[in-house]
Amino acid sequence: MFWRRKPLVSEEMRDWIVDHFDWVSTNRPQWHDQARLVLPTKDFFDAPPGGGHETALGVLRNIQDLMGLDLRIDLQPLEVLPDDLRHQYGQMSEVAGTYMSDGESRLITYDPTLVRRPLTFLNTLAHEVMHARLEEVAHLLPGGAEMHELATDLHTIIAGFGVIELEGAETAGWAGYMGQPSRAVALAMFLKFHDLGPADALPHLSARPARWLRKAWAEED
User: Fold this and answer.
1) Domain for residue 5, yes or no?
2) Based on the structure, what is the number of domains in the chain?
3) pLDDT tens, N- to C-terminus, the chain (221 residues)
4) Helix spans in 9-72 (H)
5) If we measure between CA atoms, which residue out of 169, 159, 184, 45 comes closest to residue 114?
6) Is residue 137 part of a domain?
7) H or E element: which one contains 188?
8) Inside any domain, residue 1
9) Which of 25, 48, 142, 187 could share a disulfide with 162, CB 3.0–4.6 Å?
C-alpha cells in the first residue's frame, strides 16, 4: 500500500547481499565460523599508540589475526601533502589506501594521516586486507570480478567488521563502495547469523548509523 515505508535497500541489492552470505556458508564455511563482531576496542586492537607507522603495522597484524589470514602483506605509507596544504588545494579526498599483488608478494599503501583517525583507518585497512583474502576467489563471487570492490566492502562486514565499516565511513564523511544503508542491512544479517542483536553493536555507533541498523534489523524480523 502507499503508506508502507520504503525499505533501506532495493530487493536486488538485498538479494545480492544474501547471495554472498550463502556463498561463504557453502564455499568458505570456516570464514563464517571464525567471524566475530569486531569492535573498536582494546579487546580487538592492541597496536602500539603514537599514530605512526608502527601503529599502522600493529593494526595490520590485528586485522589479519581477526580474519585468520596468514599471509605476508607489506605495508607502506603514501607520500602526501601536509593537512593544511591538502585542505588549501582541495585534496582531502585523495586515495586512502590501495592493495597491490602479483600473486606472490602483496603490498598495501595507506594515507599516513589516517592513522590519527582510528575508525577511518581501521575501515580503510580492513578493506584492503580483505582484498588479499578474496584475491583467489573474486571471479567466483556473485556478481563476478567486475563487482569486486563492492564485494570487498560486503565481505569485510561478513568477516565481522560491520561496526567498523559503518562508523568508519560516517566519521570519514564518505560512503566508499557500499552505501551506508546497504552496510546496515549486511550488518543486521551478520548479527542474526551469529545469534547476536543490535544491542551488541549500537553502543559503538553514532546516531545515523544506529538509526540505519535499527531499521535494517526491523526489516529482517
Assistant:
1) no
2) 1
3) 455 578 889 999 999 999 999 999 999 999 999 999 999 999 999 988 877 899 999 999 999 999 999 999 999 998 754 554 444 433 334 457 788 888 788 999 998 888 888 999 999 999 999 999 999 998 899 988 778 889 999 999 999 999 999 999 998 876 667 889 999 999 999 999 999 999 999 999 999 999 999 999 998 87
4) 11-27, 29-34, 53-67
5) 169
6) yes
7) helix 180-193
8) no
9) 187
Per-residue cell: 64? 589479519
Q: Is residue 2 part of a domain?
A: no
Query: Is the alpha carbon torsion for 135, 136, 137, 143 positive or negative?
Result: positive
Between CA 126 and CA 18 the distance in angstroms is 21
- The amino acid sitting at 207 is A
- First-residue to last-residue Cα distance in the chain: 19
User: What residue numbers bound the domain in which 79 lies?
Assistant: 11-220
- Helix, strand, coil fractions of the chain, as percent rounded to 5: 60, 5, 35
Contacts of 118 (CB under 8 A, 6+ apart): 40
- Phi, then psi, of 100 in degrees rounded to 5: -135, 140
